[in-house]
Structure formats: structure tokens, C-alpha cells
């Protein structure tokens, strides 16, 4: 055993030295490093909030940097959305880099979430970027590939170790409508997914590619999408889910979600990531109970097949942009909901 450890040490040193350029580091594979559960947050709004003088405080009322505060509350990962050409610059690749650098400096892992839009992409809208509107389908696939590579290459050149990448956001009916609308052309949706998948692997070969669907409790939706992707030759590493219950139905919805997770693992032999969760900030007792239950049941699934849980924009407070499912109160302090991350 001592000889084996020595040889491994030497091999690591040789690999480290051989990298030469500091940008050419080995990719981090979060599935192999420590096998720890990702406890994360989507923080896409943070730079915009800071520009509007929004402050964040710990439970004692001490002002803190928002990302550092989340880490102090037990989080080890962040999720960042990317828009192609946003009108105000927020969530552009440059803005994403600023946030990714801050998280990386704190030793936190990074998930990148491509919306493939100039603004929000979700179950109700999957609008093509303005610059892509007149493209042919083949050109659209090339644009997806080039945009994905461009953003990830910028991050890699700045030494950001990206562990997971979403190719689309809540694509329960495909993306880049109408060409990639799943109920109209599942084959096109699969081809666009592969354009993103191949781009990710070209830059971060060990990053895990996520296909992310809303309503994590809805097994019929997940089977329809992933059966369709599979039958059309799509590639993905991780099934991504969102889960947004209420204080009254969280127990039932969690049971349905866990059942769906088990089916996804069995049916497709894939890992699962719960990419988004949230519950009203002023129902903190219910949120704490729900999240502790979700963490417990997710981590109890064998072979570490559930990779983690990300809270969507927990830092949002004081009705920021009308969003009320954060996990900070109107004084800018964390609610009990985040106790689950400790």
C-alpha cells in the first residue's frame, strides 16, 4: 500500500508539472472528488443586487459579502445562468466570469446554466437570441455549439473549474422554439442538446452535462422528455430537476420527486441533480422542514446517485424584482430554511 501511495503521489506531481501553462489544469470531476453532496445556490442576481446597493447580513446582523455568507451557512457550490446578448449586461459571459471568480476564490464549485436566450428561458418561453432568429437549423446548432464553447473557454482561461453544465434551462418542452420545441420535433431538440453536450466536453471533458426539466414531481413529463431524447440519440450525463412546493404540499411533492428520481436512475442509468428549489421566504419553518426532508431522502439514495441540491436565488429579499421564494427576510438576514444546508 505504501508503494502504491508513493507512486500515486509521483504521478500527481508529474501531471501537475506537465500542465505547464496554469490554464491547462486537469478538469475537476465532482463525482470523484470526495464524493461530497453539492449544497448550492443560484446567485445570478448578486452583481445586479449589489449595484442597487442591496446588502446581506448574517443572523447576528453583521454585513457580509453574499457569496461568503452562503458559504458560512454550509453551501459549497454556486449556479450561474448565462444569457447570450442581454440588454443590460447582467448574466452575460463577462458578468458570469466576475461571479465565478468570486466563488472559486472561496473554494466553491461552479455549475453553469445556459439558457440559450437573451433573457429568461423556462417552461413558458424558450425564445431564441435576437442574433439567431434568422438562422437555419444547421446554423442554429452551430450557434449553440460556438456560444457554449465561447463562454466555457473564457472561464477555463481564467482557471475556473466547472463541474456541471446545463444545456438549456427547464426545457420540459425543448428549447430554441419553434425549431427545438419537443412536442413538435423531438429530433431537433435532441440535436440541439448534442450540440451543447459536444461543446461542453470539448472544453471541460470531465464536466457533467445536465438536461434540466421543471416539475421534478412529474414522472410522466420526465419519461416523455428523456424517452424522446434517448430514442433520438441525445447525450446527457445528469437528469436535472426543479422542485417548488408550497407549505401545504411539500411532503407529498417530495415523495413524488424522490420516486421520480429513483425511476430516472433505474430507467436511464443516470445521476440526478436537483438544480432548483424554493419556497416562500415567510414560511421559513415549513421550508426548513421540507429541505431537511429533501436532503435526507436524496442522500439516502444508494451509490451517491443524487449529486446535490441548489436553492434558487436565496439571497433575494425585500421583494427583489417581485420574487418571494428566496431564503432571506426583509432585514437581509437568512431564514431558518438555510439551516438545512449546514
TrEMBL record:
Keywords: Glycosidase, Hydrolase. It catalyses: The enzyme specifically hydrolyzes (1->4)-beta-D-galactosidic linkages in type I arabinogalactans. One of its GO terms (molecular function) is hydrolase activity. Coiled coil: none annotated. Its EC number is 3.2.1.89. InterPro entries: GH, Glyco_hydro_53. SUPFAM superfamilies: (Trans)glycosidases. It is an enzyme of class 3 (hydrolase). Belongs to the glycosyl hydrolase 53 family. This is Arabinogalactan endo-beta-1,4-galactanase. It comes from Sphingobacterium litopenaei.
Amino acid at each position: 500500500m505504501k508503494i502504491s501511495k508513493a507512486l500515486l503521489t509521483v504521478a500527481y506531481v508529474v501531471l501537475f508539472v506537465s500542465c505547464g501553462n496554469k490554464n491547462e489544469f486537469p478538469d475537476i470531476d465532482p463525482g470523484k472528488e470526495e464524493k461530497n453532496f453539492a449544497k448550492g445556490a443560484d446567485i445570478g442576481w448578486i452583481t445586479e443586487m449589489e449595484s442597487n446597493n442591496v446588502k446581506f447580513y448574517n443572523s447576528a446582523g453583521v454585513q457580509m459579502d453574499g457569496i461568503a455568507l452562503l458559504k458560512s451557512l454550509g453551501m459549497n457550490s454556486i449556479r450561474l445562468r448565462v444569457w447570450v446578448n442581454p440588454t443590460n449586461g447582467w448574466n452575460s459571459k463577462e458578468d458570469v466570469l466576475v461571479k465565478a471568480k468570486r466563488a472559486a476564490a472561496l473554494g466553491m464549485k461552479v455549475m453553469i446554466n445556459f439558457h440559450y436566450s437573451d433573457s429568461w428561458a423556462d417552461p413558458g418561453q424558450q425564445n431564441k437570441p435576437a442574433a439567431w432568429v434568422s438562422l437555419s437549423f444547421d446554423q442554429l446548432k452551430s450557434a449553440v455549439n460556438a456560444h457554449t464553447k465561447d463562454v466555457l473557454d473564457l472561464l477555463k482561461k481564467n482557471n475556473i473549474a466547472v463541474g456541471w453544465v446545463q444545456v438549456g434551462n427547464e426545457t420540459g418542452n425543448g428549447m430554441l422554439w419553434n425549431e427545438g420545441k419537443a412536442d413538435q420535433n423531438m429530433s431537433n431538440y435532441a440535436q440541439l442538446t448534442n450540440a451543447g453536450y459536444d461543446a461542453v466536453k470539448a472544453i471541460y471533458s470531465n464536466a457533467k452535462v445536465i438536461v434540466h426539466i421543471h416539475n421534478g414531481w412529474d414522472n410522466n413529463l420526465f419519461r416523455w422528455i428523456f424517452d424522446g431524447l434517448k430514442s433520438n440519440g441525445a447525450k446527457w450525463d445528469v437528469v436535472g430537476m426543479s422542485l417548488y412546493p408550497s407549505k401545504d404540499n411539500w411532503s407529498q411533492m417530495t415523495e413524488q420527486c424522490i420516486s421520480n428520481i429513483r425511476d430516472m436512475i433505474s430507467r436511464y442509468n443516470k445521476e440526478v441533480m436537483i438544480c432548483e428549489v424554493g419556497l416562500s421566504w415567510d414560511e421559513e419553518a415549513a421550508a426548513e422542514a421540507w429541505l431537511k426532508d429533501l436532503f435526507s431522502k436524496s442522500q439516502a439514495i444508494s451509490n451517491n446517485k443524487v449529486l446535490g441540491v441548489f436553492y434558487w436565488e436565496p439571497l433575494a429579499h425585500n421583494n427583489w424584482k417581485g420574487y418571494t421564494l428566496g431564503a432571506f427576510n426583509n432585514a437581509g438576514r437568512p431564514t431558518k430554511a438555510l439551516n438545512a444546508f449546514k
